[in-house]
Specification:
The chain has one domain. 69% of the residues lie in helices and 0% in strands. The protein has 4 helices and no strands. Helix 3 runs antiparallel to helix 4. The relative contact order is 0.08.
Length: 91
């Protein structure tokens, strides 16, 4: 299987890093999502879409917590802000 000649290359380093971070995030979400039902003690009872959404938020929170700009406090605040926005959106 060869590389397609039509494949577009990133325009610059910033675009490359954005694509790379997106690919890493998706990889970690796919790794974490199947584990969540077992971590929460309810295998087979959680909706796969909701589990994937939760995994995506957890990966983003962990990433935020690992940055110098964010830190652990910001990583812990992120899930709270997601829940607050979902709750206020349903009211």
């Amino acid at each position: 299987m060869g590389i397609s000649e039509d494949r577009r290359h990133p325009a610059n380093t910033q675009e490359f890093l954005a694509l790379w971070n997106s690919a890493k995030e998706e990889h970690f979400v796919q790794e974490l999502a199947p584990l969540l039902p077992f971590l929460l003690g309810s295998p087979g009872k959680l909706d796969r879409g909701r589990t994937t959404d939760a995994a995506r938020h957890l990966v983003r929170a962990m990433h935020l917590a690992s940055t110098a700009e964010g830190g652990v406090g910001a990583g812990m605040d992120y899930p709270s802000s997601v829940v607050e926005s979902e709750v206020s959106g349903k009211e």
